[in-house]
Amino acid sequence: MRKPQTKPFTLGRPLILAALLGYAGWVVFPLLWVAYSSLKPDAAIFRDTFSLPAPNDLHFDNYSRAWREARFGDYFFNSVLVTGVSVALIVALGAMAAYALTRFYHPLARTAFWLFLAGLMIPAQLAMVPLFFELRALDLLNSRVGLILVYTANGLPFAIFVLAGFFRSLPRSLYEAAVIDGCGEFSAFWRVLLPLARPGLVTVAIFQFIGVWKEYFFAFMLVGGDVDGSARTLPLGLANLSITAQYHTDYGMLFAGLVLVTLPILAVYLLLQRQIVKGIAAGALKG
User: What is the rounded end-to-end Cα distance, in angstroms, of the chain?
Assistant: First the structure.
């Protein structure tokens, strides 16, 4: 006699949907709360903490005051400049290094690859003291150039780790065909192999953008001593807004600053979330 087949235990679709909706609400609600609290005066934030502001009592001036009085306009420009240049350098240098380490045969290539990856295991706190003295000796302390160099060096191990898997998976016949057609070494890399690694390039760019944009530790230690604040980024400006207030904090303006810091990250993630998933999936299959 055949034994009756037992169906494996599975959670029902309604239960899974309810769990996912609950998790989404748990993640999204704090963002929404900060967003609509940025349109309230301080008294309303403490009196009606979770209620929505009245339509005739929306304080958009919190954003204008944060942009002008708290100098968020200057900090925003610094963050855009530092993040854009750092991400561009990380992607460009990481792609060239990953290509050279995976496509050329050299006795020390594997050793060099693992030395780069060792950078992923070094905590930032251990590297801070030598970095500080090095930048001070080069007169790059409290400057955007010094911060860009540090972010680039810090992001290269991750970029090389991700992009090496993409270049290693590409068939060598593509490179040989490009050489036969008259391409030089750089031309074959730039025109043939680099476009094929586009998912990896996009993945590295997105993760590095998010990491550099919200980075605080390096910025605080390396440009926090800037007296006039000409090199400070948005996280430093946000922290300075709450620290300098001492016993009185303008919470409406503080929440407006939080929204200004968070919006670019949300925009990049929402616009490129499919690219992130594709890049991670491709890297997992090609690694």
Answer: 48
Task: Report the alpha-carbon distance of residue 35 to residue 255 in Å, rounded.
Answer: 7
Distance of CA 248 to the CA centre of its chain: 32
- pLDDT (tens, 9 = 90+) of the chain, 287 residues, equals 555 555 555 667 888 888 889 998 898 898 899 998 888 888 888 888 888 887 777 888 888 888 888 888 889 999 999 999 999 999 999 999 998 888 877 777 788 888 888 888 888 788 888 889 999 999 999 899 999 999 999 999 999 988 988 888 888 888 788 888 888 888 888 888 888 888 889 889 988 999 999 999 999 989 877 767 788 899 988 887 766 555 567 788 888 888 988 888 888 888 877 766 666 655 544 54
- The one-letter amino acid at 124: A
CA distance 122 to 131: 13
Q: Is residue 282 a contact partner of residue 166, using CB atoms and an 8 Å limit? A: yes
∠ at Cα 170 (165, 173), nearest 5°?
155
The model carries a pTM of 0.83
Distance between CA atoms of 276 and 105, rounded to whole angstroms?
31
Token look-up 């306009």 returns 73
Tokens of 67: 């942009």
Q: Which domains, and CATH codes, for the chain? A: 62-286 (1.10.3720.10)
Please state, in angstroms and rounded to a whole number, the distance separating the CA atoms of residues 85 and 136.
21
Task: Kindly provide the b/e burial profile for residues 252-261, where b requires at least 16 CB atoms within 10 angstroms of the residue's own CB.
Answer: bbbbbbbbbb
